[in-house]
Amino acid sequence: MSSEFGRILKISVFGQSHGRAVGVVVDGLPAGEEIDLEALQRFLDRRRPGKDGLSTARKETDIPEFLSGLEEGRTCGAPLCAVIPNADQRSRDYGGLLDKPRPGHADFTAWAKWGGKADMRGGGHFSGRLTAPLCVAGGIAKQLLARRGVFVGAHLSAVAGIPDRRFPLLPTAELFEEVAAKPFPVLDGEAGERMQTAILAAKNGLDSVGGVVECAAIGLPPGLGDPMFDGVENRLAAALFGIPAVKGVEFGEGFRGAGLRGSENNDAFRAEGGEVRTASNHAGGVLGGITTGMPLVLRAAFKPTPSIGRRQETVSLSRLENAELTVQGRHDPCVAHRAVPVVEAVTAAVLLDMLMEGNHGTF
Amino acid sequence: MSSEFGRILKISVFGQSHGRAVGVVVDGLPAGEEIDLEALQRFLDRRRPGKDGLSTARKETDIPEFLSGLEEGRTCGAPLCAVIPNADQRSRDYGGLLDKPRPGHADFTAWAKWGGKADMRGGGHFSGRLTAPLCVAGGIAKQLLARRGVFVGAHLSAVAGIPDRRFPLLPTAELFEEVAAKPFPVLDGEAGERMQTAILAAKNGLDSVGGVVECAAIGLPPGLGDPMFDGVENRLAAALFGIPAVKGVEFGEGFRGAGLRGSENNDAFRAEGGEVRTASNHAGGVLGGITTGMPLVLRAAFKPTPSIGRRQETVSLSRLENAELTVQGRHDPCVAHRAVPVVEAVTAAVLLDMLMEGNHGTF
Amino acid sequence: MSSEFGRILKISVFGQSHGRAVGVVVDGLPAGEEIDLEALQRFLDRRRPGKDGLSTARKETDIPEFLSGLEEGRTCGAPLCAVIPNADQRSRDYGGLLDKPRPGHADFTAWAKWGGKADMRGGGHFSGRLTAPLCVAGGIAKQLLARRGVFVGAHLSAVAGIPDRRFPLLPTAELFEEVAAKPFPVLDGEAGERMQTAILAAKNGLDSVGGVVECAAIGLPPGLGDPMFDGVENRLAAALFGIPAVKGVEFGEGFRGAGLRGSENNDAFRAEGGEVRTASNHAGGVLGGITTGMPLVLRAAFKPTPSIGRRQETVSLSRLENAELTVQGRHDPCVAHRAVPVVEAVTAAVLLDMLMEGNHGTF
Amino acid sequence: MSSEFGRILKISVFGQSHGRAVGVVVDGLPAGEEIDLEALQRFLDRRRPGKDGLSTARKETDIPEFLSGLEEGRTCGAPLCAVIPNADQRSRDYGGLLDKPRPGHADFTAWAKWGGKADMRGGGHFSGRLTAPLCVAGGIAKQLLARRGVFVGAHLSAVAGIPDRRFPLLPTAELFEEVAAKPFPVLDGEAGERMQTAILAAKNGLDSVGGVVECAAIGLPPGLGDPMFDGVENRLAAALFGIPAVKGVEFGEGFRGAGLRGSENNDAFRAEGGEVRTASNHAGGVLGGITTGMPLVLRAAFKPTPSIGRRQETVSLSRLENAELTVQGRHDPCVAHRAVPVVEAVTAAVLLDMLMEGNHGTF
Asked: Which of A281, B259, D106, D112 could make a disulfide contact with C222, Cβ separation 3.0–4.6 Å?
């Protein structure tokens, strides 16, 4: 499984940070779907590095080449393969690190797994660079979902402990677009200013900060998902933990809800225009693993970037003795803001997969 | 997939709350493993209802019958099937509810999925009763893990916002046993008293509270898990969200970590006795989806029991108009304390599955 | 995976030949489906042993008990568990065999796999007895398919090298019923007489014979199945090889077609009543792994029953030296005629699963 | 699933016959494995078209480019992506065919599945061209297997009904190499001459012939595979039916065995040098889905190439009326001889996957 998720729609990611290319195979797309490559590029640009002082200085154009599955701008039923060449690989920055695993990175666990034989330059296959092909797949999924009335949007819910507003009870596609168009994707601009200040402060302190991304999907029908181990939450969580640096996933009130009373957390049902809605949405649109038809709301917690400029304690793997290292190279003082489209991408891909699988309750 | 998880070790749960029986098929167990049925029963008793005023008054003996896979107390390679008859089904308590979905329950989503044809008496297949067969599977997994030096333990990390202590950096099997032996599974007895007071207060107010379960596993080798979508976190989260009422899952610092700085959250490596350890364990024993060899630490958030005695607003599904209901029947003012062994069970089952699958990094 | 197949509709079989019971969990059935238990029993009776001199003398009533998933004769969305107790276990017949693996049986490979710790009495989990719960699942699948205009039927295509006629180009549901009602399920009664004579001759010679089952499904829409590794042939073959004693699976002309010329084997397309049909059906209703809408036709080869009354050469596993054994106990001189409903069952289950999964080509 | 197979080792194929490239992602390879690219190229050359009058005149160099997963000639733990550009795409040859499905091809079923929106130029994703990336994956698997003492070889077992000899009871790696080195891969050169004559005769008659490939694997340990639906046969068959034109798969005696008596088909066990062997190998190395340790022997039936030069009857899909067509373009009068390495490739990939997964019988 490893670098793949999905059932009907399978998304398989490949590449290493400093290899020739990263890419993705998307197997199972319906045929005849037009892909708006300009819109896709705008989506990819949202996660692209090197745009401002808040991110790594690595320069990548991130323009995918389609080797298969897309003919004259339309899907053709065959697996789609998109490749993004790695333009700016400065692997010398990381030279010599291999013996000294960087704290908080997968260097040590990759060493434990592959006996030191992994290509871990720049984080190798664990690098945030792998989120570029994920966004190709997810960006395509978003277009197909939108065509079917399902919209996915996200914002930075918190950075360095500074909270943004939450999504309103009924977010709209327009709101999603509005946030996506912002250089710093928050609902509350003032909170965004404080977050950016915190990121720059961390950067100046040769440090980093973490954050939380809140993602919502609207337009989902009720009845999607299966009970117990194959619900919307199970499948979204399994995929979302595949985004580098994610350490927590919650739906609706999530961990906060564990401190509420039932009378506060239950969502009263309402009949509205011939449909069943809920007056609040503490459930985040999911009850018993199955969609209610209300907006799906989830949050993913991103740890602070482990790459920091400070001297850190580590070990020499070859000598099994304590050592120190200072991580050179370019790195993000915060990944959460660049992760916003990535969370959208993974959420969209999972939801499209589940919609294609359908609700087999009555077949 | 629905009611199943696992790869090498497949666990498939069946039954409805008020049907004839609940049960589990465990396919893939190694052969020749002795199962200590008394120890298993003690484990099952930890989640059994009806022991005190903190839980539902439903009486169940919860003694599994083994139809296959276990011969003379040992596994025999064939799939193990264990059945627990439903002794005390008072389905009349729930009569008439079917048209009025209970807020916070899966009644409405089951209706949306199965067009009103589901057996939802007592929650049907969504009932917490399904955690009994889960504990049979997980209790067996715990025994097999212990035989291989891997121990899984859990405690109530919070109830109604009242926190317990966290597990220490290096929890021991003895600590796990000590907590498991307590009638109310907390580390800090005083916090436990306050939690129980909060539960009873909620009960008296015809209300309910939620909680958080913290679970740890010790003895895991480094190198377990695969990158991206098939890591320890992905697979544990996918299974843990299958426990009824779980709305969030986090590893290590999780959501709290999103507010830390990299210099605070990174775990420095240390060479200790020829092994690589970390000085702290903010990562919860997982980096890049792969185990570090430090204790695996996770937390699952349980929402407050949706069944509360108060009058609630809902709809009539047949007439699509607003309605009210008061949930009769027996229910738990809190499920989190009974969920402690369930989280252990699911965690143990996933870890045993992953250990059996092995670390194929170098084959 | 082991004892399970299916995606949307998961079928998980459990039990050992001489354990307490055999059974099946069917997860993913649509809700509200009436199950005609009498029709199901008639289907089960077609494979039941002990009816005549052609089969084992083992007596089993094979009446399933439904522990879950079926309420008042209808499916309810929850996994269905059916259990068939093992009434007539004469395990003493097999006593002492365990050290001397029976040629042609799984005794030796089970020993290699489970280190001698498997329960192999009567073949254990490898026994043909496991086809009883398979038929419960498949019999239910057949009822659901019939309700949707898809009919599955089979006949003995050959026994001991004696061929039956093939199914006509367009078999009908009536033909399927007609064959199913026969005590010996062939199209050509005369061929059937010769087959039965051959079976009895083998029996009298303390020997056994093999056979081939031909199965067809009508009413399938064109466009079902996915290219390459997830087509109708891949999935049917994967499941059919799970029936004990199957050593070959072919579709349409299969192995015979490998000797034909393209001009003989190609099926000309015809426009008939606004639909595309083929003038012949050498493809067996599948091109490129995807259904054509013509009848699906497959054949499964069953090896001669390995249990024969003659003295055979084997080894003592404990002493690793050559030995002899004479298999006692009851056994079938031929399994192919009893396997006819089993092939129908597995075919029906796979097809229902694929129909539920749908044709996602254009979503 | 579609264009993918495998569990631990996942192989995902992409590309269309006349698109930019075909390729493969191999996820799960152990790290540090040296890949002999010259040996791999020799293996690929065995299936490459355009070498003689027996095959299509399409010219392809079929040299894979490795975009990821291979650094300095060694696997690095990350998914390996290999791409083979399509050099010689003469799609005009196929122009105008799209409305008239070619008999025996997937044109019609692709139309039924994707509503006419598939890219079916040259067979699209169903083309035999997709076996090139399959051979990249399988050729790598063969190298890893050989390093572990497992060797896979194949030969043409029959063409146009003309049989080759069977593999001997104990084929050797040397024999496999010897056959692989032949321009026409048969054991019996005289039979090979007759086959080639038959192929050329078919070609001259604007027709085609089918064939059978026999494949064997030696060096497998006993105990590999799981009972019922997850055995060696199930998994090999599921993958082998993914090779274009395969219509039948059998193990050991297969369909021929269905005509034997048990006393003829059973393989007597023998103690030899502290190991258990069988005196014959009618089982093809598999009993109960689990390897015996004897050579694994299977056969795959390939239908005659559906592309023939003769005028054929078909329909116009747009007008739903009968029509005729003459297939232009280059095509193989027989694919079976070029399929020999493809069967090896798929067999090797499945076996490596199963070996990596291991025998969990006693864990």
From this structure: D112
